[in-house]
Amino acid sequence: MIAFQDVSLVYPNGVHALSHIDLTIGRGEFLFLVGSTGQGKSSLLKCVYREVLPVSGEVTVDGRPLSALRRGQVPFLRRKIGVVFQDFKLLHQKTVWENVAYALQVTGAGSRDVLRRVPRTLELVGIAHKSKMFPYELSGGEQQRTAIARALVNNPLILLCDEPTGNLDPETSSEITALLARINTKGTTVVVATHNQAAVDRMRRRVVRMINGRIAHDEERGHYHIGLG
Q1: Which of the residues 27, 47, 92, 210 could staple to 39 if both were Cys, CB 3.0 to 4.6 A apart?
Q2: What is the mean pLDDT of residues 20-37?
Q3: Domains in the chain, ordered, with CATH?
């Protein structure tokens, strides 16, 4: 589903974010990316949805080399990929329903599709009863569930989560990671960059640790402190 072949990334300011990354993530897999801040986790995710292009190597998503995509093809790639951020990035002037519907509308979905898919997705993430509320009326966990619904409403093949529990209390964090696990059981490939040690250790999924822009350890059923003793 996702493949990195000898990928290196250098930002225009000279920061070397990724160095010779080789990584394959299978269809339907659940993977945690761990490591301290600045080790390359977010940069690796950005390569997948082509926010950035590596200076060398190749990233392939669903069999397509991303370097070969023309600019006009990038939106079609991103329809296959849902992205969830730590700070939610919700539109505060829109309700929960409208936030999720907007993700469909910008892809040209018709009103019938919107009316069918939005309630189904809100039900999946457990906030259908909050559909008429605005983000400022929601708890942090509810805002993150809304962000996840927005990422899921286009039925993506891949869900990328960049510190999805970073601003949440432990109980809510546990609920969000459990939700991501349920989404994964439906066949979606899920990649989570996180500092949430409790979630990683509890779920025992594949864990990849990054250090200085490189993959230091990769374990099938790992712990947060993989490779550290």
Answers
A1: 210
A2: 96
A3: 28-49+75-219 (3.40.50.300)
